[in-house]
Design a protein that fits this description.
Layout: E1 8-13, E2 16-21, E3 40-50, E4 53-58, E5 67-70, E6 74-81, E7 90-91, E8 96-97, E9 108-114, E10 118-123, E11 135-141, H1 146-149, H2 155-163, E12 199-214, E13 217-224, E14 233-236, E15 240-247, E16 258-259, E17 279-285, E18 290-295, H3 301-306, E19 310-316, E20 326-335, E21 345-347, H4 351-355, E22 361-364, E23 377-380, E24 384-393, E25 398-403, E26 407-411, E27 419-423, E28 425-428, E29 433-439, E30 444-450, E31 461-467
Parallel strand pairs: 3-6, 5-11, 12-15, 13-21, 14-19, 20-24, 23-31
Antiparallel strand pairs: 1-2, 2-9, 3-4, 6-9, 7-8, 10-11, 12-13, 15-17, 16-18, 18-19, 20-22, 24-29, 25-28, 25-30, 26-27, 26-29, 30-31
Protein name: Copper-containing nitrite reductase
Domain Blue (type 1) copper: 91-140
Catalytic activity: nitric oxide + Fe(III)-[cytochrome c] + H2O = Fe(II)-[cytochrome c] + nitrite + 2 H(+)
């Protein structure tokens, strides 16, 4: 990111000349001699969220307004972040680009002269922002300037262009600040059981940080409370929950929360669009028992989910759930990166792969090895284990299975009044959940997998370690 007031020279070509400049400062790039009727047109834009889309808005409230000009006009665009997130202003054909700006950096400005008629798209190049509405049109009327028809090439011109042509971004090594973001599957809130309804107050923070995706590979995660999945929440039917969502001041994006357990307000997403450094609160009643997914609901929603912004809330029935010996919290996600699975260094998100549903990674609890190296599920022979399992997605169904075990009970689609018994594999949709229970009768390492088994090679595998003496006759290697 460029500091406020930094100047960013850009290419000069036959379509126009441009340079980003700090507010109130004239462009340093030379412009062609203006036509007789040429004008300087000043455009002021603000970014904002309108009807669920991220857009540019002018002082009259026009969304992504068309900018009209004539060949030879000089255009000065000043833009600021109305909602606080990080953005820029780009016109590829004219080599126009501002520095990144946000509420923290203040406004940015770019000044350029157009020499060719036509329609050109302006947009925000922050990943995902163009796809969710940040694009408009620059419409230039008139005839092409004579000087633009055939600009001869010479050594000095080529050298100047080379100077202002950005080199391809080097492959970044792993981020040395990266930390583990994998949620501990044993971090399950205590059972509630039979009690009267209460009011709960919950505070969560959205944080963008470098995390360890795989050995030697890092990724910029977007998280709830610095972990993937976000913290498991637990309530009882009839409870009132006051939930405050804060967005870290260091964030570059707006974030929010949509809880599938919430009735009204887009699950909370309508009223929790929180800019960096801000916070918002919603209050809801837990009306329906079950296990429900929550996720960020800020456009581009699948981008936020793929970066790690999902979790679950359990709403217990009035009498609570049957007691078990151990409870675990596991979620599956699919991730999309610009370099293939296993590439070392810092991975960036690939939104085209995400749109085409071509994941590079399938992960349990946010990272490769999260439930084999960082954490393991544990139990003793004779214990009953309950796993709260959900799929953040954003795109792929999971065929959840434990190799070497059978689910004694499955609460299908996490509906607490629908119990199936003796299930081998259960389907869980993106944004869905299930609850499975198994009594372990023999020691060993039991693998948690998505039974679309090619996905184990991309990260979707965990371990349940069972210790103790096996029950007689259940299993042995060899003959009787």
């Amino acid at each position: 990111m460029f500091a406020l007031g930094a100047s960013m020279p850009a290419h000069a070509q036959h379509t126009g000349h441009a340079a980003a400049a700090p507010a109130g400062t004239a462009s340093a790039a030379p412009a062609p001699a203006p036509a007789a009727n040429a004008a300087v047109k000043k455009v002021v834009l603000h970014t904002n969220i309108v009807d669920g889309k991220m857009v540019y808005v002018d002082d009259k409230g026009q969304v992504n307004p068309t900018i009209d000009a004539r060949v030879g006009d000089t255009i000065e665009v000043q833009v600021d972040s109305g909602e606080g997130a990080e953005h820029d202003f780009v016109i590829d054909e004219l080599k126009v680009k501002t520095p990144r700006f946000s509420a923290g950096t203040g406004k940015a400005k770019v000044r350029f002269t157009v020499t060719t008629p036509g329609e050109f798209t302006y947009y925000c190049s922050v990943p995902g922002h163009r796809q969710i509405g940040m694009a408009g049109t620059l419409r230039v009327a008139g005839a092409a300037a004579a000087s633009a028809a055939a600009a001869p090439s010479n050594a000095s011109t080529d050298a100047a262009l080379a100077l202002y042509t950005p080199a391809p971004a080097p492959l970044r090594g792993p981020d040395p600040t990266a930390v583990s973001v994998s949620a501990d599957p044993a971090s399950v809130p205590p059972a509630i059981g039979a009690r009267a309804p209460q009011t709960q107050k919950v505070r969560m923070e959205t944080v963008e940080l470098a995390g360890k995706l795989d050995d030697g590979t890092t990724f910029t995660y977007w998280t709830f409370n610095r972990q993937v999945p976000g913290p498991m929440l637990r309530a009882r039917v009839g409870d009132t929950v006051e939930l405050t969502l804060a967005n870290s001041k260091d964030s570059k994006a707006i974030h929010s929360i949509d809880l599938h357990a919430v009735t009204g307000g887009h699950g909370g997403g309508e009223h929790t669009q929180v800019a960096p450094g801000q916070e918002k609160t919603i209050t809801f009643k837990a009306l329906n028992p079950g296990l429900f997914v929550y996720h960020c609901a800020t456009p581009l929603v699948p981008q936020h989910i793929a970066a790690g912004m999902y979790g679950m809330i359990l709403v217990e029935p009035e009498a609570g759930l049957p007691k078990v010996d151990r409870e675990y919290y596991v979620m599956q996600g699919d991730m999309y990166t610009q370099r293939p699975n296993g590439a070392k260094g810092h991975q960036e998100p690939d939104l085209d792969k995400m749109s085409n549903e071509l994941p590079d990674y399938y992960v349990f609890n946010g990272a490769v090895g999260a439930l084999t190296k960082t954490h393991k599920l544990q139990a003793k022979v004779g214990e009953t284990v309950r796993i709260y399992f959900g799929v953040g997605g954003p795109n792929k169904i999971s065929s959840f299975h434990v190799i070497g075990e059978i689910f004694d009970k499955v609460y299908s689609e996490a509906a607490l009044n629908t119990v199936k018994t003796n299930v081998q594999t259960t389907l869980v949709a993106p944004g869905g959940a299930t609850i499975v229970e198994l009594k372990v009768q023999h020691p060993g390492s039991y693998l948690l997998v998505d039974h679309a088994l090619s996905r184990t090679g991309k990260g979707a595998v965990g371990v349940l370690e069972v210790t103790g003496e096996g029950e007689p006759g259940v299993y042995k290697a060899g003959k009787l």
